[in-house]
Design brief:
Helix content: 40-55%
Strand order of the largest sheet: 3-2-1-7-6-5-4
Number of helices: 15
Strand content: 15-25%
Number of domains: 4
Mean pLDDT: 85
Number of strands: 19
Low-confidence stretches: 1-14
CATH architecture of the largest domain: 2-Layer Sandwich
Distance between the termini: 78 Å
Radius of gyration: 44 Å
CATH superfamily of the largest domain: GAF domain
Structural class: alpha+beta
Bound molecules: adenosine-5'-diphosphate
Largest sheet: 7 strands, antiparallel
CATH class of the largest domain: Alpha Beta
Shape: elongated
Length: 583
Amino acid sequence: MTDSTGLERPVRGSRWSDAHARDALRPILDTLAEVAGSDVVGVSGIRDDGYLQVLCVVGPDDAQEVLVDSLAPVAELLEQLEVAEDWGTLKFVPHDRVNLDVERWGWVADGPRDVADGVWHPQDLLVAPISDDHGQLVGVLAIELPADQLLPTGGSRDLLEMYARQACRAIAAILESERLAEQIRLARAAANIVRRATGSMSAPEVLSECGAAIVDGFRAQALWTHLFGSEPRPVQDADPHSLPQELIEIFVRYSVAAWERQAVGVFAPDRQPPEPLEDADLKAVLEFVDAESLLVVPLGAGPECLGWIALTRGPGDAEWTAGEAEVAFGIGRDLGRALANASNYAREHRLVEELQELADYKSRLVATVSHELRTPLTSIVGFLELLEGDPGLSPRSRSAIQAIHRGSTRLSRVVEELLVLHRTADGELEAPTEVDLGAIVADIVELNEGPAAPRRIELTSSLPHAPVRVLGAAHELEHIVANLVSNAVKYTPDGGHVRVTLEEVDGEVVLTCTDDGIGISAEDQARVFEEFYRSADPDAAQRSGTGLGLAIVRRIVDRHRGGIELESVLGSGSTFRVRLPAL
Ligand code: ADP
């Protein structure tokens, strides 16, 4: 309890700052003073710095004035109890055994100094130690100067004992509730801080957001924060001078060791320097910092110490209690976690930005290259068509030109699809208009009859008579229908069936394209909407394609706030179903 560092080994002490507790003590002391026939009765509470603080006194005004809030070392009281006569709850120390610094113990009433046995001497000590439920000393009751000037004996001492016992029990309960009230107050402040420190804040935001709450919660004068790798700075400080390097080095050395020990430390003139610091370090800190005392708290996450915070209190402010030290340590841990999250968040954010830039660059590159290829390709295909019409071509040249023509056409398709992919990369649809999807489906089905007929593929459709209106971009919606229908025809063997239906169901327009073609394996179904993905299934691979059609379909469906589903069985056929919001 008298451990000089105190806070690293918490004892049962409190700050005794709550007037409410003092008010509750007064009637108990009044009753006791009456029973004892005593002029002055007082209660002191033990603080965790090893001092007794007088909390409440009944008696003459001058006695109250001198005694209330005065401090005396607990060690002195313990010494006196050892030489006391044990009356039970009460302990009596006759004046000739009293060995106290009288000034520090405060009140010594005037009275005759030379007295006979059985008569109260002004320097006699009559006290009742007050313990909590765990038998720990939490305070002391002191009774002085019986009005009749006589030491109580016999029945009157028994009565006084009984009252003192009851009073001690009541006082212990009040001191305990004061201690709990203080803990609750601190816990609330801490919870407040933790709540503020969550979310997607940057490290400086976390610190400035929490700083005010920490200063309030601890009734501190100022707060310094230092996150390793950045400059230490005051959060709320009238004097924002920066810390000299020497002091930063002391705090860093202390906080790294303290985080390892899971402790916080008090820097105050009457204390030992917190481990592993030395007297000179403590002196340097106290000389520089314009404060009476500091509570230095390491910030950490996992095994790593990330920085520290230092709370300062000025002259006359309360001393740091064990309860505060405990809560402060928890705050260091929670803040450390929040700061670690913040730096992870910042790192991820940077990574996402870089990836986004890379994706933008890739997309711009593809668009530029495609665009540059488009014009020359169009003229190549045009010239090849001209050449093919030349009747003087040898069969060898004709077949070579036809091969070049097929290759160029395929290249043109890739270029066109890349450009569409680029145009639909942005999730937002610009200026959507009212579109009749029924008309689009009818046109595309008709167009696909050309390639379907020679292969005896039966291509049928079922469309409502009335227009089927959706809100969107007509040329994009055309891509959806064209890709699905041409794929169905392409991946259906000769003599197969393809059926396209369009209907309105529960506020949705549903486009279904079903074929009894080669089907898609479950493994491929998971990937066919990826860019450039083509099935490795030999039946699929032998048909020419770019692997871009379904990626484009999916993007356009997304841009129209719709959805796409695929049901397929390898070898039996596939059904693609697109749902779009009806107008
Ligand atoms: P591709 O240009 O290769 O047809 P898509 O993106 O349109 O590219 O389709 C991706 C893959 O999905 C195709 O390579 C094919 O394996 C498969 N696929 C698409 N539609 C069908 C279908 N109706 N029947 C069977 N497989 C299909």
